[in-house]
Amino acid sequence: MGLVMPNPGTVIWMLIIFGIVVYVLKKFAWRPILDALKERETSIANALNSAEEAKREVAGLKADNEKVIAEARKERDVILKEAKEIKAKIVAEAKGKAAEEAQKTIDQARQQINAEKTAAINEIKKQVAELSVVIAEKVIKKELSNKGEQKKMVDGLVDDIKLN
Amino acid sequence: MLKLSKVILLLFVFSLLGFSPLLAQHGQEEEHSTSNHASESQSTKEFNAGEYVLEHVSDSYDWHITSWGRDHHISFPLPVILYSKHPELHGGKKFHVFMSSKFHHQHDDYLGFRVSESEEYDGKIVELDVHGNELGRPFDISVTKTIAEAIISVILMIVVLISIAKAAKRNTGKAPSGLQNLLEPIIIFIRDEVAKPAIGDKKYEKFMPYLLSVFFFILLNNFVGLIPFPPFGANVTGNIAVTMVLALFTFGITTINGNKHYWKEIYNPDVPWWLKFPIPLMPIVELSGVITKPFVLMVRLFANMMAGHMIVSVFVSLIFIFTSIMGPAAGFGISPVSVAFSVFIVLLDVLVSFIQAYVFTLLSALYFGMATAEHH
Q1: Which of A10, B106, B223, B273 could form a disulfide with B115 if both were Cys (CB 3.0 to 4.6 A apart)?
Q2: pTM score, two decimals?
Q3: Which residues on chain A are in Cβ contact (under 8 Å) with B188?
Q4: Is A7's Cβ below 8 Å from some Cβ in B?
Q5: Of B113, B23, B119, nearest to B65 (Cα)?
Q6: Would the CA dihedral through B334, B335, B337, B338 be positive or negative?
Q7: Looking at chain B, which residue has its C-alpha nearest residue A47?
Q8: B129-135: which pairs have CB atoms within 8 A and are 24 or more residues apart?
Q9: B135 and B154: one domain?
Q10: Contact yes or no for A10 and B123 at CB 8 A
């Protein structure tokens, strides 16, 4: 019977001992241990989270990089295209200008030729007129060599004056 | 293979070592029976297995280490603290504090006190009247073997756990080290597998210190009871007063933390009205449940640990039974079997130690969970 009857003295001692144990351990052992556990768990969770975030960031960066590269490529293409266009334009412009210039030169040449031609013709005309005067002089001199003729002529001239 | 055989050898050696105090106790037993004690009743030379087993598992006033021959005892005296209502029988004082060595290994009376061997008060200190008749028990708050062992294990536990707490503080946010590594998984297990599911994520934190304390207290004292050499080996968790205190703590915490819902379920449960009026049948059933829960906690732990110690003692006492019946040769012949079975039982007890500590903690957590559950 002694085994299954709790001894009051033992109960009192155990109440004191176990009470002290619970109090002391609660204050000096479990609180720090549980707090440390919690802190470590949160720090691990945080570390995992930040690792995940970093991973995501890296993936984002990669995507960004690719985007940037693609953009650069596109831009390069655009620039190249533009450059080609500009080249074509410049060439075309140059060609146009050259043709214009040539035309101008030709026109000038033509004008000059025309002017020279006119001058030459005028010269010829003058020469012809002088020659004709000279010829006419000679002819008249020859014709007025006899007196009748001379008289006729003067008459004719006097007639003309009368008329006036 | 070599390793396994070494382990087995080691276990055998340890078990033999471990039971040497028991073997010695046997000697004391015989010696007892022949001593000229005043109230010596049954004087038998025969080995009394029942007595031997009971003496091994029950509490005592001094810490018996070993004895040989008739009068050679080595035991560690423990303080006896008594309060008597009859000061005239004890030198005029009511309050007495003396070492248990004054009883000279329970052979002598001291100041009108005696360690009784009668049927009623076996092994307990009783008061004597002037004629040497046993009057009854004084109020006895002696530091017995169980208490001394509990104090030792508690000091051990506090020292270890506070050092771990210091390590935990030092290693905050870092990897655990040393003993911290050993105990943290257990602490996490109690938290995540016992407290959280049983009490709930919101309220479990409040009960963690108690649950951890009770778990480690039971576990350590279970183990301490299995270590067979001083200053260990006393049967702490196999003492019903100890388990009663543990159960009382659980009961007290449950009662203090019981919320409205918990009390309503007890005094006014949702059952048909005729179960509550005119005879409050269900409230009586519920209220008895409140008492039964800690009672069951108390008995389960006590019975399990007590049984483990008893079985080991019984297997060891087989040796002496055989010796006393068929001679020393038979006793010697049976000893390997006894030792093998004892080793098996001790190993089983290691498992039981864990299971009982776990079960006590889990059930406490479940009761706390019930007391704090919200209405659903």
Answers
A1: B106
A2: 0.74
A3: 37
A4: yes
A5: B23
A6: positive
A7: B173
A8: B129/B89, B130/B89, B132/B38, B134/B39, B135/B86, B135/B89
A9: no
A10: no
Answer for the pair B344, B74: CB distance below 8 angstroms, yes or no. Answer: no
Tokens of A85: 């266009």
Distance (Å) from the alpha carbon of B275 to chain A's nearest alpha carbon: 35
Confirm whether B59 is domain-assigned.
Answer: no
- Are B159 and B257 found together in one domain? yes
Closest residue by Cα to residue B149 from B256, B207, B77, B221:
B221
Instruction: Provide the residue range defining the domain that includes A41.
Output: 8-163
What are the structure tokens assigned to A13, written together? 């001692």
Per-residue pLDDT tens over the stretch B16-75: 444 444 444 444 444 343 334 433 333 345 678 888 888 888 888 888 887 776 677 888
* Chain B residue with the nearest C-alpha to that of A38: B173
Number of domains in chain A: 1
Give the residue among B253, B313, B286 at the shortest CA–CA distance from B47: B313
Closest chain A residue by Cα to residue B303: A4
A20-30 mean pLDDT: 93
- Contact flag B164-A29 (C-beta cutoff 8 Å): yes
- To the nearest 10 degrees (0 to 180), the angle between helices B204-226 and B240-257 is 180
Q: Are residues B164 and B137 in the same domain?
A: no
In a domain, B37, yes or no: no
Domain assignment of residue A29, yes or no: yes
Domain boundary residue, one of B142, B161, B193 = B142
